[in-house]
Amino acid sequence: MIGLTNVEKYYGDYHALRGITANIPEGEFFSLLGPSGCGKTTLLRAIAGFEHLSGGSLTIDGQDMSRIAPHRRPTNMVFQSYAIFPHLSVAENVGFGLRKRKDINRDARQRMVDEALDMVGLSGYGSRRAHALSGGQRQRVALARALILKPKVLLLDEPLSALDKKMREQMQAELRRLQRQIGITFVLVTHDQEEALIMSDRIAVMFDGQIAQMDAPQTLYRRPSTRRVAEFIGVMNFLPAARVGDEMFDVAGLGKAFIDRSQVMNGAGTDCVAGLRPETLSILFDGSDVPDHSFEGTITDRAYYGDMTYYDVVITPGTAPVTISMKNRAGRPILEPNTKATVAWDPRSLIIFGA
Amino acid sequence: MKGGWLRIYAIVYLIFLYLPVALLPIFAFNDGTIIAFPLQGFTAKWFLELAAIQALHSALWNSLFIALVTATLSTLLAIGAARASTRYKFPGKAPIMGAIMLPLVLPEIIVAVALLVVLLQLGIGLTSWTVIAGHTLICTPFAIAILSSSFQGLDASVEEAAIDLGETRWGAFRTITLPLVAPGIISAFLIAFTISLDEFIIAFFLTGAEPTLPVYLWSQLRFPTRIPAVMALGTLLLLASLIILSIAEYARRRGIARTGGKDSGGFL
Ligand SMILES: Nc1ncnc2c1ncn2[C@@H]1O[C@H](COP(=O)(O)OP(=O)(O)O)[C@@H](O)[C@H]1O
Ligand SMILES: [Mg+2]
Questions:
Q1: CB distance A85–B260 less than 8 Å?
Q2: What membrane topology is given (chain B) (predicted)?
């Protein structure tokens, strides 16, 4: 559907996109995730046609886009600022793109606008002035305005970042539902890893104008290919490790364990780093059996989140603590700092990175 | 007591500023040729006398023509400059914009003399068009200042959104940007028009055989009997300027209200 091959973009001397290659199939919810300034917007705007490529190629539906002006591309965009036309009514905003379509008469246009407003939950808002709407409503108008043209690709630039938390969560679910319902390709730009994980079929993690990893959310979370990706998505503990056999690793404070090849990332030599997510570690409360793989440590800090408690546990005095997250269950105590704890871990959820 | 002194200061300030101007309409309706108190009685004959002076009429038409052309040129130039300065980054932008805005603070007499020297060197005769050139030079910075604030208040992505929805570049500018900055354009046009209409120094130096209204007005001051009529003419000019500037400010504010923006200055 969207084919990006070695896409390059320079702003003067600044190298904003460095050899981006990706294929986004039809109907996929694809996200570009990365820290601010990594080039997400630039890539999205290049797909929309607002940025010229300095190199490489872009195809949509098999058609080369290099000579297609933005107003003739089968893409529509939801801008970060929503870009609502402030002097037009909601209905005029939503119907804006239809004015150019000679095959659609007034009545049909009116009906399509009503349908589009209905789809985003704004029935009856047609005659309102656009600049009097709330942030969430503007967002919906921008969405209806883009979707009414039935694009092959919908491009969204941080569409939810200006909304408050409740509204954002609601819109995340709604966007996902809309995308399934109409079945077109969505390309979402976000710097919020949680948002990307929740919504996407596939995520491209970008750093410094390059795609660091492109995978389904679960793969990305469980098998991040580099430390930087692992750090950007969720929380991960890093411990120094050494390869002591073909698939045998000695992890500082944890001891030796057999680690499957699939968990060893490219670039891991003799000296390497072991990564463990907080939820793959668990504190053993009194009475539990001690499993094969466990270690002793001292709790140095804890943060209570209601449903979860996060503990910092130091294994060897003088080293950095590891973070452990525990579900708060009935009968499970909240441990205080300076308590000794036995922690179970599982070699199957450990990842080995290059040092 | 501090507030008291400030209040007195403000009142004295306003009196100094507007008393001379207030004398204009007073003597315009005074039934006497000598500009002095006590007043002689009420009359409108000076206004009627104005209607009879042929030279005045041609000066008026000349001024209106110059103001109209100047306002049109300045506004068109300013639309381009304001859009470029608020939307694009380009090398040398700061010095270029500085140079364009400089006539705003340059003494008019310097501009006038410099233009006169250049025109004479080039062998270009003085006509209404030379006045238009001079006026465009000084009116454009005002128009740019007004339009820059209009363009600044505009989200750059609305134009792209229109393109994204199928408009061409020009179509997007026409259907989205122009309506949104229209109040600014009207305001800039009217202010340029007023400045040109009232301007004296450049017109005095660069005018050819046909004087503008302020130049004609000045030439009549030599004839004491004409002074009341000059007062009447001044009153009319003052009134016209006030009305035009009020419309300009109304247009600017309405534009802000229409797009739900915040007021960020303007000249009035
Ligand atoms: N028009 C431009 N001119 C110069 N540099 C730009 C321009 N647009 C973006 N950049 C630079 O390119 C980099 C990537 O920008 P962007 O794609 O907006 O990042 P993101 O959306 O990931 O935050 C940034 O460092 C930014 O400063
Ligand atoms: Mg961005």
A1: no
A2: Multi-pass membrane protein
Compute how many other C-beta atoms are within 10 angstroms of the C-beta atom of residue B236: 17
Q: Are strands A55-60 and A202-207 parallel, antiparallel or unpaired?
A: unpaired
**Total domain count for chain A?**
2
Residue pair A252/A241 in contact by the 8 Å Cβ criterion: yes
The answer to whether the CB of A252 falls within 8 A of the CB of A258 is: no
pLDDT digits (tens, 9 = 90+) for A310-327: 999 999 998 999 999 999
Give me the domain span that covers residue A200: 2-227
Domain ends where: A207, A227, A247? A227
Q: Considering CB atoms only, which of B164, B166, B180 is closest to A87? A: B180
DSSP state of A96: G
Same domain, A127 and A275: no
Residues of B whose CB is below 8 A from A86? 158, 180, 258-261
Fold annotation for B53-259: MetI-like fold (1.10.3720)
Residues A116 and A175 in one domain: yes
Cβ pair A85:B161 closer than 8 A: yes
Q: Which residues of A touch B170 (CB under 8 A)?
A: none
Is any atom of ligand 1 closer than 6 Å to the C-beta of A35?
A: no
Domain ranges of chain B: 53-259
Centroid of chain to Cα B158: 31
Q: What is the pLDDT of residues B94-143, one digit of tens each?
A: 888 888 888 888 888 988 999 899 988 988 888 889 999 999 999 999 99
* Alpha carbon distance A340, A345 (integer Å): 16
Q: What is the DSSP letter of A279?
A: G
Residue owning tokens 């073909």? A246
Find out whether the beta carbon of A39 lies less than 6 Å from any atom of ligand 1.
yes
Is 0.95 exceeded by the ipTM?
Answer: no
Residues A223 and A245 in one domain: no
CA A123 to chain centroid, in Å, comes to 31
Look at residue B101 and give its three-state secondary structure: helix
* C-alpha dihedral (A143, A149, A154, A160), degrees to nearest 10: -10
β-partners of residue B42 are B30
DSSP structural state of residue A320? P
